[in-house]
Amino acid sequence: MTESSLAAGPLQIFYTVSFPEAQAHYVDIEMDIKGLAQNQLTLKMPVWTPGSYLVREYAKNVESFTAEHNGKAVNVTKTRKNAWQIATQGLTSVKVKYRVYGNEISVRTNFIDASHGFLSPAGTFIYPDGRLNLPSTIHIKPYKNWDKVSTSLASVNNDAFTVTAPNYDILFDSPIEVGNQDIFGFDAAGVKYEVAMYGGGNYDKDRLKKDMTKIIEEETAIFGENPNKRYVFIVHNYQRGGGGLEHLSSTVLGASRDGYATESGYLGFLSLVAHEHFHLWNVKRLRPIALGPFDYDNENYTTNLWIAEGFTAYYDNLIVRRAQLNPVESYLKELTADMGTMDNTPGTRVQPLSQSSYDAWIKGYRPDENSINTGISYYTKGSIIGMLLDLEIINDTKGAKSLDDVMRYMYNEYYKTKKRGYTDAEFKAGLEKFAGKNLDDFYKKYINGVDPVNYDQYLGYAGYHVVNDLEGSNNPTLGATYVNAAGHVRVATVLRGTAAWKDGINVYDEITAIDGAEVHDPKTMLDGKKVADKISVSIIRDGLPMTIPVTLLRNTQVRYRIESLPNVTPQQMTVRNKWLKIQ
């Protein structure tokens, strides 16, 4: 008889979470398991958290793992990096105790100190192997003067410090903030929203309520429904903060506490809100078939993160624009920033977009000094591809349909009706359904290939064209980026195909002189030089001085702007108005 069949009974699981040494970054967990009827029980901790595609080895932060029954020790054997086997023969219950160290500030990892406790559940709670369907109850004992809990998990008997999860997929998808956060709420799209602000900041609650409502209602209109009854924004405000991680009924955002006062900082925060909130449909419910049910022990590979993340990155700024919170001109500048980022990345001509998604586990979250040469972000290029497809559909249907209709159709067809994720072919078919044409060539060039994007073709549908302000320039460059520390200029990256690449300037080299003239500022070190000049670059590499001859090449970086075409046709204006919601 297998362990899983022996464990078929209705196990009851209760966690007690406490912070006796919060100041030292610890959370203590007690796990009470009742209803045992097996000889041994294996408990596991996930190695990654959904939405962040990297094996983070959360078990590395676990210590002091013990088990007992009625106060007597029970034998525990660690059987793999994230699994503990407990001898439970003859026992009906067991209490497991362990501690978790959390001192990494991010939206996907635990962080505990004397001011608050942020718990990423995948890195906090262990679970019975093979029993992800089990419900659990969590009781939280706050540290000292902490008096608030913010989470999307339902409370028990109106006790905010006791919450319950119907299964582990939902528990692992429900972060918990404990402390003295500033909490405010509002209603939008028929849903109750809570915003929990940690770390202070110069935010205006009334303005946020109004503008977040507009964003939420714009997004809800795309899908035709808001599937939550309650949704929680957990916002961590730091001196310099950023990033976000989506969850089923909540999200965690990183922000700069003093960034709300500037228009760019405020709009950037709203874009982050729009991005993570859009995920409650796109990826949390409408998802690639590989992303659920989850394997918490291993990587979950998909070639469709350009849809799950890239399309979401396309919609975030677009939603802020549609909500009339960002002028058209500013939105177009944001688009050109993404276009420039992509085309100034040599890796976009090396790695196909679908492969960028598949390689997220080994490349996307582990960038190094050569990443810019070997890969492209599925966020950035996926966002551009979303724009192209949106414009294609709007143009082909004369303004009747858009990418919105594809997203709504796929959500209804696969999440609601088929109750499963989509395959590559199924999403392509959904796009073709509304574009009214075969997209094989588009996929060959832009999804599975590395062809340069023809911006003018697609932006032309809306009466725009792209200008590269650097197209006629003939400026020389080494083709490197630098770190300038107290006048010491060190190479940080070397771009593929540039002079530095071809002639052997390396990352970490310290550039000391050009043609004998000392270098203290990379911005001026090529003053007076021209393309095709042969120069001598003096460097220090691994403590040894050397001189490298280099032939300067033209700087091929781009700087785009989007301009309106002369004599825009009524058809183009129809596309433009539909795309940008110009009223």
Shape: globular
Largest sheet: 8 strands, mixed
The chain-level structural class is: alpha+beta
| Tally of alpha and pi helices | 15
DSSP E strands, number: 31
What Rg do the Cα atoms give? 27 Å
Measured by DSSP, the beta-strand proportion falls in 25-35%
Task: Note poorly predicted spans.
Answer: 1-8
Relative helix content = 25-40%
Account of the 3D structure:
This protein is an alpha+beta fold. 28% of the residues lie in helices and 28% in strands. An eight-stranded mixed beta sheet has the order 5-4-8-2-1-12-15-14. Helix 5 (305-322) crosses helix 9, helix 6 (328-343) crosses helix 9 and helix 9 (378-396) packs across helix 15. The longest helix is centred in the middle third of the chain and has 19 residues, at 205-223. It is globular.
Using brief descriptors, characterize the structure shown.
single chain; 583 residues; alpha+beta; eight-stranded mixed beta sheet; six-stranded antiparallel beta sheet; 15 helices; disordered N terminus
List the helices and strands and how they pair.
Layout: H1 3-6, E1 12-18, E2 26-34, E3 40-44, E4 62-69, E5 72-74, E6 76-80, E7 83-87, E8 93-101, E9 111-112, E10 116-119, E11 127-128, E12 136-141, E13 148-150, E14 154-156, E15 159-165, H2 168-172, E16 176-179, E17 182-188, E18 191-198, H3 205-223, E19 230-238, E20 244-246, E21 250-256, H4 263-278, H5 305-322, H6 328-343, H7 353-358, H8 371-374, H9 378-396, H10 403-417, H11 424-435, H12 440-447, H13 455-460, E22 464-468, E23 476-477, E24 480-485, E25 488-494, H14 499-503, E26 510-514, E27 517-518, E28 534-541, E29 544-551, E30 553-554, E31 560-564, H15 570-580
Helix pairs in contact: 3-4, 4-5, 5-9, 6-9, 9-15, 10-11
